[in-house]
TrEMBL record:
<feature type="transmembrane region" description="Helical">
    <location>
        <begin position="7"/>
        <end position="29"/>
    </location>
</feature>
<protein>
    <recommendedName>
        <fullName>Cardiolipin synthase N-terminal domain-containing protein</fullName>
    </recommendedName>
</protein>
<dbReference type="Pfam" id="PF13396">
    <property type="entry name" value="PLDc_N"/>
</dbReference>
<dbReference type="GO" id="GO:0005886">
    <property type="term" value="C:plasma membrane"/>
</dbReference>
<keyword id="KW-1003">Cell membrane</keyword>
<keyword id="KW-0472">Membrane</keyword>
<keyword id="KW-1133">Transmembrane helix</keyword>
<feature type="transmembrane region" description="Helical">
    <location>
        <begin position="35"/>
        <end position="55"/>
    </location>
</feature>
<feature type="domain" description="Cardiolipin synthase N-terminal">
    <location>
        <begin position="15"/>
        <end position="57"/>
    </location>
</feature>
<keyword id="KW-0812">Transmembrane</keyword>
<dbReference type="InterPro" id="IPR027379">
    <property type="entry name" value="CLS_N"/>
</dbReference>
Amino acid sequence: MSLHVNGFWGIIHLALVIWAVVSIVQSGASTGGKVGWILLIALLPVLGFVIWLFLGPKSR
């Protein structure tokens, strides 16, 4: 049972990360800023996403 629960949360996390990366790429931030935010999300998956959610660049 726990494997199915963990898989569910993994899929939710993957969807949120994809949404964040698409939003970052579409934002008006500089190229360096975009790369920095994507690296933060990639290196600190949950914490990076939460930081981006509150402080990251907004979509156009």
